[in-house]
């Protein structure tokens, strides 16, 4: 019990909030870097050529050397690409892959920025504020919308890419939907709790 009280102590909470703020900034930089690598052709996928199949191929790969696959990213989905008539990966396939990665990473970048604002305010001692409630709500909603709608957007982008490309690709997505839904709902509820606490405090202040 005493250990729990120490964890809830302001002397511990403010440094922890500062650490989490930096963690959010790190996550933002990580997602930005991964998105840039994806647009550079460093996203891995399962490649089917006319003669062989490669498990961790990338668009920027010049040969089947493991060193050429350093600094690569993976979207977490099962992506398969088939070469065109010239046994090459169509540029439009690479554009489609990049867009699919971006629709997943951009909302996460924005979400972590909102979360960093919450930890920044806590570090400054500003806890029960409407601003924090709004930031937590935005974070939860972005996570929720990413979990529910992004898989369908990826499937749509995949179909549109196949319509205009000489090659072909497929994607199996949505595996992490449930893992994202529960935390997102928890943050939305936390936003309501803070909003309700601010409202009660306002009523008390006006009563006094």
Question: Can you tell me about this structure?
Answer:
By secondary structure, the chain is of the alpha+beta class. 65% of the residues lie in helices and 9% in strands. It has helices at residues 2-7, 10-39, 91-123, 130-164, 177-207; strands at residues 45-48, 53-57, 78-82, 168-172. Strands 2-1-3-4 form a four-stranded mixed beta sheet. The mean pLDDT is 87.
Can you give keywords for this protein?
single chain, 208 residues, alpha+beta, 5 helices, 9% strand
Outline of this structure?
Helix content is 65%, strand content 9%. The protein is of the alpha+beta class and 208 residues long.
Task: Give me the secondary-structure topology.
Blueprint: H1 2-7, H2 10-39, E1 45-48, E2 53-57, E3 78-82, H3 91-123, H4 130-164, E4 168-172, H5 177-207
Helix pairs in contact: 2-3, 3-4, 4-5
The pLDDT mean sits at 87
- Overall structural class, as computed from helix and strand content, comes to alpha+beta
Distance between the termini: 34 Å
**Which strand order does the major sheet show?**
2-1-3-4
Largest sheet: 4 strands, mixed
Please tell me how large the radius of gyration is: 22 Å
Unreliable stretches (pLDDT < 50, length at least 5) are none
| 3D shape | elongated
Number of helices: 5
What share of residues is helical?
55-70%
β content, as a range? 5-15%
**H/E element sequence:** HHEEEHHEH
């Amino acid at each position: 019990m005493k250990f729990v009280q120490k964890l809830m102590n302001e002397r511990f909470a403010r440094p922890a909030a500062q650490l989490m703020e930096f963690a959010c900034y790190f996550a933002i930089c990580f997602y930005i870097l991964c998105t840039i690598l994806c647009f550079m052709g460093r996203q891995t996928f399962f490649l089917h050529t006319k003669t062989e199949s490669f498990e961790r191929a990338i668009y920027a790969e010049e040969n089947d050397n493991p060193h050429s696959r350093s600094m690569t990213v993976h979207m977490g989905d099962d992506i398969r690409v088939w070469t065109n008539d010239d046994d090459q990966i169509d540029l439009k396939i690479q554009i489609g892959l990049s867009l699919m990665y971006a629709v997943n990473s951009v909302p996460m970048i924005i979400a972590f920025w909102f979360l960093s604002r919450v930890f920044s305010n806590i570090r400054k001692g500003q806890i029960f504020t409407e601003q924090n409630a709004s930031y937590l709500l935005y974070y939860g909603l972005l996570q929720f919308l990413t979990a529910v709608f992004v898989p369908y957007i990826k499937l749509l982008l995949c179909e549109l890419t196949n319509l205009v490309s000489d090659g072909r690709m497929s994607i199996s997505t949505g595996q992490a939907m449930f893992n994202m839904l529960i935390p997102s709902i928890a943050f939305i509820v936390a936003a309501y709790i803070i909003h309700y606490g601010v409202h009660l405090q306002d009523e008390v202040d006006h009563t006094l």
